[in-house]
Each structure stands twice: as C-alpha cells, then as structure tokens.
C-alpha cells in the first residue's frame, strides 16, 4: 500500500521533474518503481558514489555505466526518473573510461527512452561527449547516424555545423577516426537534404579524399560517389552539376598525379 501511494504520487505530480528543491523524502520517492525489488535498484544507484570508487573498486563506476542501458530497458522509459541523476553523474565522471562506455551506448539508450526524453536528457550529454577526449568522441562518432536519426529534423540539422570538428583530433596520426567519419557520412546522406549535403557534407568529403592515409581516401571515394548519386536523385540537378564541375577542377585537372588518380577511382 505504501508503494502504491508513492507511485500514485510520482505519476500524478506533474511538477516533480521540474522542482529542483526536493526534500529528502521526495528525493527518495522519486527513485521508487515497481519493476524490480527496490533494494536492488537502490544498491545499484549507490554504486556511483565517488567514495565507493576510492574505497571499494576503482572500476565500479565503469561497470555501472556498462550496465546502465540494460537497467533502463528493464525499468522502462516510465521509470527513467529513477536513473536520470545517476546517468548524469556517470556522464561527468572524472575517469574517461566511464564516459567512453556511456558514449558507446548512448544511441541504444535513446531507442529505449524515445524522442522526447532523448531530446531533453540525452542531447546535452551527447553534446558534452562531442567536445571530450578522442577516446570518448569515437564512441559517439561510431554511432553518429544511429543517434541522429532518432532526433527531429530541426534538431538534427544543428549537428551539421559540428561535423567539420571531427576532422580535428588530439593526435593527427589517428587516421581511424577520419575513416570512421567517412563511413558515418555515407550513412548520414539519407538524413539530410540535397542542399545540406552540398553545403556541409561536400567540403568534408573533399577534404577526406585528399587525406594522407590511403585507407581514409578509399572510403572517401565511395562517399563522394554516393553523394553524386544522392544529389542526382534529388529534384534540383544544379547541385549535381556543380559537384561534377568541382570534381573535374579539383582532381581531373590536378597537376599532381595522385589527384588525377583520385578522379579515376571516384569514377570507378
């Protein structure tokens, strides 16, 4: 009966999520659910306490981060309020391994939570990961398409301005980062309009085609060819013609043989 009254309180108090001045009793009630034994959930949530990491196990926060999507799936999106604070605590953990673990699974969590909770609670965390260390950024980069496709069109377009930043890494020799970017851009072509592709994705693709590492260039040739196909299928042929002219000017008539070879490979 006590749990039923608590759940009734949670589901019917519309101001609960916006009230930041919880009393200890209200704070406890906000973590109550009826899917798994409450003591089990309380034990899990307590493991993110920084003092435990220092006295019990330095890896405990990483294990919590690894398990969090599974816990969220078990509890369901209606009980996300139980995990939200813990997720934000883990997302700002001092250990990059913890943040990296969350970065690799944020797209899975977005599927579990749905578009509204994702926009409100996950997008700010996602934006923070984009500015993090390369070890963390690679997690969001590897699943960039999986995450962005879950956002509304207007929100998705905001990330067009940030894609260029993936060309800059902490270590310039980290060519796998750029190769992954090229792979993701191929998938992202389906999410954006012809104008967005021409204005934002085209300059990145041309930059990747001139990369120093052949593995990056090979993926980029496929990217440019898919871009040509996508623009050709669009209703405005102007972008295709402009892109073809740029390919001829930049690569076909390049004074370096490597540039002319690039043109041939793209045609192939």
Automatic annotation (TrEMBL):
The keyword Nucleotidyltransferase does not apply. GO terms for molecular function: protein phosphatase regulator activity. It comes from the Eukaryota. Keywords: Repeat. The keyword Repeat applies. One of its GO terms (cellular component) is cytoplasm. Transmembrane segments: none annotated. Residues 11-32 are annotated as: Disordered. This is PP4R1 phosphatase. It comes from Zosterops hypoxanthus. The lineage of its organism: Eukaryota, Metazoa, Chordata, Craniata, Vertebrata.
